[in-house]
Amino acid sequence: MSDNFDVIVIGGGPAGYPAAIRAAQNKLSVACIDEWKNRDGSAAFGGTCLNAGCIPSKALLESSELYHRALHEFATHGVKLDGVSFDVETMQKRKGGIVRGMTQGILTLFKGAGVTPLTGHGRLLAGRKVEFTGHDGARRILQAKHVVLASGSEPMPLRGVDFDGERIVDSWGALEFAAVPKRLCVIGAGVIGLELGSVWRRLGAETVVLEALEQFLPMADGQLAKEAARHFRKQGLDIRLGAKVTAAKVEKDGVHVSYADAKGAQTLVVDRLIVAIGRRPFTRNLLGEGTGVVLDARGFIQVDEQCRTGAEAVWAVGDCVRGPMLAHKGKEEGVGVADLIAGKYGHVNYNAIPSVIYTAPEIAWVGQTEEQLKAAGRAYKTGSFPFAASGRARAMEAGAGFCKIVADAASDEILGIHIIGPMAGELIAEAVLAMEYSASSEDLQRTIHAHPTLSEAVHEAALAADKRAIDIPNR
Ligand code: FAD
Ligand code: AMP
């Protein structure tokens, strides 16, 4: 095998592997290096997302939601069950099968595209040389015309709270529980904390979520966050805001979690503790001497708008660079860079990156919130439509939530769409497309939406922005 490549990608997660595939599609010779090892010691491409993030979490969210619905909703449909039970082992096996299938699929994609997969550690050296140390310990120096760094992120640790992989775990550990903990605490009411808390709550864990901030989901539209908090609390998630965790210790009777809130110092004793306080860029042992690649104060690899690092022909994409830590953001950056390397057009529209929280109800948004527009002093109008007025949502027994559109008061350009309700994560795709094409709310108003579908909520919200909604009174 040659040690010279047009492109070497370090990291095979959702930012790195698409970069490698697109570069190969662009007729460049490509190697993709990834060091991920599963708990059983096996190597796997796919990074955090496929192995320990997006995919396994969604698998368990689906299983736990089905159980929850069987328990609480089926009877409403007239579907009677003589007792409902679940089996965590089967859920975990199903999840493992999905993860294996998806991660092995990447190797098939690499083979089809002609990407050389290399399992082991990659380290960038000066002059676009890459030191590759295989999992077998063998070391080689590779040479590339371009290097793409896609080393991802890792869970943020919390001082005073040491992971033991058993009682105190990170998000990966929380996806591997073999049994439902009776008492569970999640530190951090962010996206990951809420999704993991939901999984185990639905399966019966008494779940407390401790969040340092006073505000719930501050990055989301205020109305959405309020509606979400109401539903989550109704589901039994005990969300405590303004609760800053300072320490945790494993004792005989459980994990003692110390936190401070407005009333002073508090202690909570639980069987399992999940630390989900965010993620930080992962660049350990990635950069040798004199590469010219610079990290910023928070440890992210510094890049420009087009993901160029300071070093010539060295690029960085995904969680290891600025911007939201989302798989689809990394994918677009990876693909964009691979096209730029080939002299083609590559661009990421950072104003139209959707965010999704896969809870029930689901939450999704794109663009700006009302709060952001108010702060910016921009004149806007809004239109909302509740899923309670959607025939399809009612038929699905999923009438909770709403769709809200925010548009410029003068030009009518859509500035943001915010959805809480059934399949919000799927519905948001229309909103993203609309924003990508700089659509106006009138454009959406004039677009025919099939009846009865959930997407009619987006249509009606757009109509409501001009007080022309048909299926709700206009205020
Ligand atoms: P990663 O996926 O972290 O991949 C980086 C890869 O590079 C890893 O395999 C790592 O081992 C490898 N690597 C690092 N350094 C080296 C080196 N020097 N040599 C060789 N290999 C190296 N995002 C979403 O968009 N939707 C979701 O639903 C979602 N759910 C999530 C749920 C959980 C529980 C978690 C933890 C995350 C979730 N995310 C989700 C975030 C998503 O996983 C990340 O944004 C995404 O994985 C980032 O992709 P990446 O390629 O930049 O990095
Ligand atoms: P995210 O960054 O979206 O994954 O969310 C992580 C959440 O954890 C944020 O809302 C933080 O405010 C919260 N958080 C961080 N540190 C602590 C802490 N010590 N105690 C409780 N919550 C915390």
Account of the 3D structure:
The chain has 475 residues and is α/β, with parallel strands linked by helices. It contains 13 helices and 21 strands. The chain has helices spanning 16-25, 47-52, 54-72, 88-113, 171-174, 191-202, 222-234, 327-341, 370-376, 391-395, 424-436, 441-445, 456-465; strands at residues 4-10, 30-34, 115-125, 129-134, 139-149, 153-155, 168-169, 183-187, 206-211, 238-241, 244-251, 254-261, 264-270, 272-275, 279-281, 314-316, 355-357, 362-367, 380-386, 402-408, 414-421. It has a 5-stranded mixed barrel. A 5-stranded parallel β-sheet has the order 7-14-8-9-10. Strands 17-18-21-20-19 form a 5-stranded antiparallel β-sheet, sandwiched between helices. Strand 3 (115-125) and strand 4 (129-134) form a beta hairpin. The longest helix is centred in the first third of the chain and has 26 residues, at 88-113. The protein is globular, with a radius of gyration of 24 Å. The protein binds flavin-adenine dinucleotide and adenosine monophosphate (AMP). The site of adenosine monophosphate has 15 residues, from helix 6, strand 9 and strand 11.
Q: Per DSSP, what share of the residues sits in E-state strands of 2 or more residues? A: 25-35%
Total strands? 21
Derived structural class = alpha/beta
End-to-end gap: 69 Å
Shape: globular
The major sheet is characterized as: 5 strands, mixed, barrel
Question: How would you concisely characterize the structure shown here?
Answer:
The chain is an alpha/beta fold.
